[in-house]
């Protein structure tokens, strides 16, 4: 299946992309650990079937030093021993926040309590915003059939500032 539209070749798509990049920079600069950010983004992207975002977050995580074992096990994090309790709480929030249509209650009180055990207010604000942002990015890419495979680590690092 060919991409339906290259959003980055349109004025509107470029303007939206810059806003997404700016929001991403706010989250990146937050005290939420970078490894957690990439794991959460990867897990939501797996659930949503977004090849572009999976490609991006696997490569960004690897470039930041994440191990191949942990990246391979994100999809089965509950059945893995390589994630910390804090990461497991973040991954649970990512899943429940991504599967809102599947769970009428949204994020469970149990998951929220686990997140609050491990993260302070600043980190939780970044985590909640990250789950919302990656889900929006996944939807954009899936709708236009943006394919994974061509992403290069850091290729959007200055996108928010570009003219």
UniProtKB/TrEMBL annotation:
Q: Identify the PANTHER family for this entry.
A: 4-CARBOXYMUCONOLACTONE DECARBOXYLASE FAMILY PROTEIN (AFU_ORTHOLOGUE AFUA_6G11590) (PTHR34846), BLL7811 PROTEIN (PTHR34846:SF7)
Cite the InterPro entries for this sequence.
AhpD-like, AhpD_core, CMD-like
Under what name is this protein listed?
A: Carboxymuconolactone decarboxylase family protein
Q: From which source organism is this entry?
A: Amycolatopsis nalaikhensis
Q: Domain (Carboxymuconolactone decarboxylase-like): give its ranges.
A: 23-96
One Pfam family per UniProt = CMD
